[in-house]
Amino acid sequence: MYPSRGRSTEKYVAYGWWKTSTARAQIGDNPVMRTRGSAPRVDSVRPARAGTGAALGAIEVSRSSPTPAQLRALSATDGPAADLVRSAQSAFGDLAARGGRVLVTTSAGNGGKPVAVVLPAGFDPSRPARVQTHYHGDRTSSAEPDGYTTQAILELGRADPQQVFVLPEARAKVGASPTDWTNVQSQARTTDDALAAAGVTRVSERTVSAHSSGGRALARALGSEGGLSADRVVLLDCLYEPAATSIRTGLTALGDKVREIVVVRASNEDARANSMVAAFPNRARKLTIGATRGESAHLSAARFLLDGRQTLLGGGDTFAHR
What we know:
Radius of gyration: 18 Å
CATH class: Alpha Beta
Helix content: 25-40%
Strand content: 15-25%
CATH superfamily: Alpha/Beta hydrolase fold, catalytic domain
CATH topology: Rossmann fold
Distance between the termini: 34 Å
């Protein structure tokens, strides 16, 4: 757990964006916001660490909530948060209608920028979650309606209701190029805050993935002390320089804390993928993917191998486990 210290607690509410600075997180009474306390210790699995960043509250998102009026009020004080809520309503509204949960919160680990959390229908909070934090690439967002990553997240959630996704948003140029990931401070803190906001207290596995220019976000997280907490790292065609060198350096500094590194190579230089695998013998492996189901090789990396293992394909086909 992070050291105890005073916390700046930023809270979303239906009609605005309040900020309070207190020694403890405040409990919100607005029906749009849900706040959870620190996670209890669990003997059988690692407990999720208590969040320490900006917001332990969260907006619960559905097709109809927050309302347009509430979002207009939020836009006046935090445009990026309102934008992500709108995108999440479109991208994951059907999932929420089927009993899943979708939330938007913030974290100091993400530079105060919004973060979406997706819990599939059928998620059981009494059982451990498998958590994947994903940094997206250019010309998309963390909750892109009908986006390739969104489709993969929905399919993975249907296959495994304990698969929780934490989706940080970038500072600027969301949906454009180059995506501005200079807001990223700590993936570990971002994920902890997101899980605390969603009330997820039991975690069996943590995966961190980055696609394309999301590699810059991963590189920034690895560049800060304690900035990454992962059992697995999935590099989805994100080995562009100088981020590739920074990622390799950061993972080397972590030693064997990361048990598995999956390098998914599509259009990146093969030599970079091979170099990354060679740097971590017995822990790193390479998967190669080409253009699949009408998607370019580069987009197919996130669409069909988001989890670095196997993603279900539309029509019932699957990749074999590799």
